[in-house]
């Protein structure tokens, strides 16, 4: 598939609306984060998420929200959470949202910690740092999507974390982006354009059952 076809957009596509969708999706994530507390279950967190979506006027979901606690933070979006997991007093959580505003897609994810959990906090911080390191490499070196994920793996290992190879990023656009078949960022053989590709980073502790996730749109 040619680079042009992998970055095709619809006739409604507007970069300003893409930025707004991104901003509103981050606002939704922070709203959900504010409603999550020790003792809550993932199912209860989903109910809280639905309330936030109604309040913000979310047009629709383009993928279901993923809210993972504790050991479930090592799972990818393709894997079901282990049932019955509740957020502990000193625990880790990540939120992954794919929302549509003004017919444009937002997709963001972040990890946070409740209570006192230094190792888990270090993992959450590392996912965020790794994302920004990789995004900076894209901006300064013009790396291809494939090279970005090779760089991410090397950096994660150097930082002491296990890198999840199953997460490779993807296209966004005006809804539905899937009609353009952009494929995975991690398989892209050329430099991704600004404002179209989501960089996803998922890492885990090398031996303990917790991990962290961070994603956002690559923007110059």
Automatic annotation (TrEMBL):
<protein>
    <submittedName>
        <fullName>Metallopeptidase family M24</fullName>
    </submittedName>
</protein>
<dbReference type="InterPro" id="IPR050659">
    <property type="entry name" value="Peptidase_M24B"/>
</dbReference>
<dbReference type="InterPro" id="IPR036005">
    <property type="entry name" value="Creatinase/aminopeptidase-like"/>
</dbReference>
<dbReference type="Pfam" id="PF00557">
    <property type="entry name" value="Peptidase_M24"/>
</dbReference>
<dbReference type="InterPro" id="IPR000994">
    <property type="entry name" value="Pept_M24"/>
</dbReference>
<feature type="domain" description="Peptidase M24">
    <location>
        <begin position="17"/>
        <end position="216"/>
    </location>
</feature>
